[in-house]
Write a structure and sequence with these properties.
heterodimer; A: 7-stranded mixed sheet; 22 helices; 28% helix; B: 142 residues; 3-stranded antiparallel sheet; 3 strands; 37% helix; 7% strand
Chain lengths: 792, 142
């Protein structure tokens, strides 16, 4: 299916076409889940556990149920016979699956877990009724510290034998020899914060069951409608063909809306029961408590270098705090495993040892968030590169230059098993050094320091596993397959309708994929419309893993190729020319070398739809093609980030002065959209490195449940981002397109951390706990950073 | 009218003017910003009954039939929105801001939008869009 790649001549591709989505979104005409009002619709509110771990001794719903306007009150006793919940496992030896009930039955396992639901005439009534539900809990000791949980003690999820979902090691080469003979060894124990995608639109779902046709429709703020549909059909034993899942406008996803949630099952069950539409809209407190967290890892890492600054070995032990349940489909491994699978990044690492443990705690489950498991180990590795550079007297650029996979090395098989078929890593370092103006910066830094102002420059290089399909999923350790299609239909008037399984949460695919379609077919942009977001359209796994451009363009171009051939064959008779000599440009079919001989595409399509006489026997006049696409190999994009910061040694505050990104995602479809992805990712990276922290106390109580406590970056924290494009096409994708949506959240936090360490180098700073809060900065300034642990 | 209904819920649920969004319902994110007598107000923090006799402008009132106003056009031109969920709040904040200060510098624009959260764009393009529509030579530079 993927061996022959369609060719494409970029015309619109490579230009910053303005987005067709925008007028709707700019005028209040977008339709998000919360904006949908259906006749006879009821409203649900979920009562949530105030305890991290407790037995539910009894629940009294009588007062709530008798409140005027309340239609139904359910507990886990009502939901569990109807649906067992979210069964999440992976076909990996030793992996421990979990089942998260739709509502907790006998035990609660994290603060925020659903206990009961009220359905009422309004959300206000439902919330008031929730307050009347009496729950008698018997609190149990909460498992909050992942490392302690690994060592033993109470079991966070009593359905498991211990607190480990999976523990696994991977070794290549002789680590002991490498570390014994190294000229320089650097090590650190990096404690990464727990944070969340926090899209501005919280989650939300509406289910409508229509009994006369046994039709269930679910509108939900998701990145993966087909996955939700297939999973609901299985877990609720509901016929898949009678279930439609619609993702309308979605207000940001970033990975958080790419898994099945209990509330999606719940509203379906409620509507089946009540035979009325039921709407559940999450509030911000629920979103911060329950809508998946991410990124909490401890990376105990050591690097060994020879005297020339060449890396000999990398050791990393990852302890991932994954919360009380596995999310589906990602599981705990989205953090604990995903980072180690690509830890060598753009570097040559002769000897590698990784070990990860995915640990269960009484916290919100971890899910996917932009850059998945890579962010925390990236900080560790890049910080240690700088530390080694300082010891060896090499600049951050030079030590990286000496260690990246060089142009003559491709194809290069990394110690992780990932293969770099192409790349621009050396060019990236050189470009980054040039755009930041390194020499001038050093001069400025020196003068500023003399005046008591601490400027720092931090660099980070990355490789992004993008366009994730089956090959890439297996390559990073997930034994899962993906299936993605697009349908292209040419109408009688020559207009083109594309439906794709690639969903939008703001990435502008209805524009970028229209550019691809127009160029692939040879028609004008205004003659193409792209639609997505419903399971009534073509099947696929949605948008995540930097796959929108790659999978969307790949499937569309394969479908267009079939249509082009059919149209040109048909036109060859009319134009009395061999089909090989025909081309389609601007909606006209032309004979190569004979500019006077042409016919509009619309003339051909009309003749195919409505022929003057019957078509030749054997000719199939269908002008609609569905094609699948799954990249044959792992598509790796790459680049680098640099941050310039000023750190106030008196207040501990960090000011980002300027940010630089060098990005190589192969053929760029729409530079404006690519740059938007980078800038947005950098803003999230600033939150990740400096501001955002989901803090649990020792009882497993979440302390940060509002935007007053959980700080998102504002315009005052996010500087302008200077973006430079390099284009090194992938051999695996049509046109050489690579994904790039994840990169800034893989790598930009590391650049910020390195910049702060550089700014505070006069104090010997080497910060290993995140985020970089003022108290941690002041601790570093006081010359009292957290002690580094010995090498593993 | 139920006296405890917020202005935001009243606009969305009663009038079904759903262009005004709710992102936090505690006055931080700014997605619900509307103009009350010309001033930018967080409609999640104001009760609907407090709006009696006052002039309310929401995002639905910005554009004439089938054309974007200059600020909306600048947002499109500069890619100042992605998912579009926070966008109405930014447009209303910037509308009030430009009424008060038609020729701001980029620093002033950056400060003016600092009470609105966007998770997609990184703010740079929003600042560029506002600077463009303000049409001030100084604002177009750094």
């Amino acid at each position: 299916m993927t061996d022959v790649l369609p060719l494409i001549t970029p015309r619109l591709i490579g230009t910053s076409v303005l987005r067709s989505e925008d007028p709707r979104l700019l005028t209040g005409n977008g339709e998000f889940v919360a904006d949908i009002f259906l006749p006879r619709m009821l409203h649900a509110c979920v009562l949530r556990s105030p305890h991290a771990r407790a037995m539910i001794k009894s629940i009294d719903t009588s007062a709530a149920a008798s409140m005027p306007g309340v239609h139904l009150v359910w507990t886990g006793a009502d939901t569990s016979p109807r649906c067992t919940g979210i069964a999440a496992g992976l076909d990996i030896e030793g992996f421990k699956g979990t089942v998260q009930p739709v509502l907790a039955t006998t035990t609660v396992r994290y603060v925020g877990e659903g206990i009961a639901v009220v359905v009422a005439d309004s959300r206000h009534i439902a919330e008031d009724a929730c307050d009347l539900i009496q729950v008698d809990y018997e609190p149990l000791p909460a498992v909050v510290d992942a490392e302690a949980a690994l060592a033993g003690g109470p079991i966070a999820n009593d359905t498991l034998a211990d607190n480990v979902i999976l523990e696994r090691a991977h070794t290549v080469g002789d680590l002991d020899l490498a570390f014994a003979t190294a000229a320089v060894t650097v090590a650190g124990r990096f404690v990464n914060n727990r944070y969340a995608a926090a899209p501005i639109e919280c989650r939300g779902s509406i289910a409508r069951y229509e009994w006369t046709s046994n039709q269930l429709t679910l509108w939900t703020a998701t990145q993966v409608p087909h996955f939700i549909r297939s999973t609901i059909a299985k877990s609720m034993r509901f016929p898949e063909h009678n279930l439609e899942v619609i993702a309308p406008d979605v207000g940001g996803g970033f990975g958080q809306k790419a898994n099945l949630f209990a509330e999606e099952l719940l509203v379906c069950l409620l509507s089946l029961e009540l035979k009325r539409p039921v709407k559940w809209i999450e509030d911000r407190r629920e979103n911060l408590m329950t809508a998946t967290h991410a990124k909490q890892q401890i990376n105990d890492m050591a690097l060994a270098f020879d005297a020339d600054g060449r890396l000999l070995a990398l050791r990393d032990r990852v302890d991932g705090d994954g919360g009380a349940y596995n999310t589906y489909p990602w599981t705990h491994l989205i953090e604990a495993m995903a980072g180690t699978s690509s830890i060598t990044s753009v570097y040559k690492v002769p000897a590698l040892h990784t070990h990860f443990a995915a640990i269960v705690t009484n916290k919100c489950p971890v899910g996917a968030y932009r850059g998945i498991g890579c962010t925390a180990p990236q900080i560790a590795r890049e910080a240690l590169f700088d530390r080694a550079g300082r010891e060896l007297g090499l600049s951050p650029f030079e030590i990286r230059r000496r260690n990246v996979v060089q142009p003559g090395d491709f194809p290069y098989t990394a110690a992780t098993g990932l293969v770099h078929h192409e790349g621009s890593f050396l060019e990236t370092v050189d470009t980054l050094e040039k755009v930041v103006g390194y020499e001038a910066f050093l001069d400025r830094q020196k003068k500023a320091r003399a005046a008591g102002v601490y400027l720092g420059l931090g660099v980070s290089l990355f490789s992004e596993v993008s366009g994730i399909g089956t090959a890439a999923a297996y390559a990073v350790g997930f034994p899962v397959s993906t299936h993605d299609t697009s349908t292209v239909r040419i109408e009688p008037t020559g207009k083109v309708v594309v439906t794709t399984s690639i969903t939008s949460q703001g990435q502008g695919q209805h524009t970028s994929l229209a550019q691809v379609t127009a160029d692939a077919l040879g028609v004008r942009m205004e003659d193409v419309v792209v639609r997505s977001g419903s399971t009534s359209q073509t099947y696929g796994h949605g948008t995540w893993g930097g796959r929108g451009a790659v999978i969307g363009a790949g499937s569309i171009m394969r479908a267009v190729q079939v249509l082009r051939e059919k149209i040109l064959d048909f036109a060859s008779d009319m134009l009395e020319a061999a089909s090989e000599d025909l081309l389609i440009e601007n909606g006209q079919i032309l004979v190569a070398g004979s500019p006077d001989r042409s016919v509009p595409l619309a003339r051909i399509t009309e003749e195919i739809y409505f022929p003057a006489k019957a078509h030749k026997p054997g000719f199939d006049p269908t002008l609609e093609v569905t094609a699948a696409y799954d990249p044959a190999g792992v598509v790796l994009s790459s680049g680098g980030h640099a941050a310039i910061v000023e750190v106030d040694s008196e207040t501990g505050l960090i000011k980002l002065e300027k940010f630089f990104a060098v990005e190589d995602c192969g053929l760029v479809i729409n530079p404006m959209i690519v740059e938007g992805q980078i800038r947005g990712g950098v803003a999230q990276a600033i939150g990740a490195a400096v501001l955002e922290d989901l803090i649990y106390d020792e009882n497993g109580q979440l302390l940060t449940t509002t935007f007053m406590d959980y700080l998102l970056p504002t315009s005052m924290e996010v500087p302008d981002v200077d973006v430079t494009h390099i284009e090194t096409p992938s051999a695996f994708t049509p046109g050489g397109i690579k994904g790039m949506g994840e990169s800034a959240m893989i790598s930009a936090p590391a650049a910020i951390v390195n910049a702060v360490n550089d700014a505070l180098s006069p104090f010997g700073a080497f910060i290993q706990r995140f985020p970089l809060t003022p108290d941690r900065i002041l601790e570093a300034v006081a010359g009292n950073p957290a002690p580094a642990s010995p090498a593993l | 009218m139920d006296v405890r209904i917020t202005l935001a819920d009243w606009l969305r649920d009663e009038l079904q003017l759903t262009g005004t969004k709710l992102g936090c319902e505690h006055g931080v994110c700014g997605a619900c910003t509307v103009l009350v007598d010309g001033k930018a107000v967080r409609s999640c923090l104001m009760l609907a009954v407090q709006a009696g006799g006052r002039s309310i402008l929401t995002v639905e009132g910005l554009s004439a039939q089938s054309s974007l106003n200059p600020l909306q056009s600048a947002f499109q031109k500069h890619h100042a929105l992605q998912c579009g969920f926070c966008t109405a709040g930014f447009l209303m904040t910037c509308t009030a801001f430009l009424n008060d200060n038609p020729h701001p510098t980029k620093v002033e624009i950056r400060e003016a939008i600092s009470g609105n959260l966007c998770r997609c764009t990184g703010y740079q393009t929003i600042i560029e869009a506002v600077a463009d529509v303000a049409g001030h030579a100084e604002a177009r530079q750094q």
